[in-house]
Amino acid sequence: MSFDDGLDRQRAQVMRAVRHASDSWASAMRSHKLAPPDAGFAGRLGELAEAAATEQVAWEHAHAAGLLWRPVPGAEQAQPPYELRPGTGRRGPEELWERFDAAVATLNRAITGSSAADVADAFGEIAESAKALADAVAIEGEAAAQGAGARARGAA
After folding, report:
1. 96-144, pLDDT tens digit by residue?
2. Dihedral sign from CA coordinates of 7, 8, 9, 11
3. Rounded Cα distance, 57 and 124, in Å
């Protein structure tokens, strides 16, 4: 086996990981596009965070293998699914949403270029901000459910 054979195998592995990560990301984004406003919001944010973290790792490996991101022209104007956009009544702390919005803008800029490292970093920012939001929204949901239960018991 030659050095080139090993490199080709490594790149093929990386590309499989990239495709898997891309599929996870697409699935997470679809869940937000098709979602009604419901209690599953925190879970969808958690899935988005996991998918972004998977993308981050895949693109870190791609960068290490010398692969480039294929630029997406015009991506700076891309918007996330409706329930993730500003001004739509998003649940959760505003400062975490501001962090998420900044991460989305960073990702949109990164994907217009070809740097796999920049794309990996941007997905990492999405992962961290979406995870923080998922946790905060879950806590808010639990508090609201406990408050509703206490009100119901008090009315009985």
Report:
1. 999 999 999 999 999 999 999 999 999 999 999 999 999 999 998 777 6
2. positive
3. 8
Domain ranges of the chain: 3-155
Task: Return the structure tokens found at 74.
Answer: 């015009």
The structure's pTM equals 0.80
Helix ranges restricted to H, 34-115: 41-64, 94-110
Cβ 52 vs Cβ 123: under 8 Å: yes
- The CA-based angle 3-54-120, given to 5 degrees, is 70
Task: State both tokens at 125.
Answer: 């920012």
Helix, strand and coil in the chain, % to nearest 5: 75, 0, 25
Residue 69: burial class (beta carbons within 10 Å; 0-12, 13-18, 19+): buried
Residue showing tokens 């879950």: 138
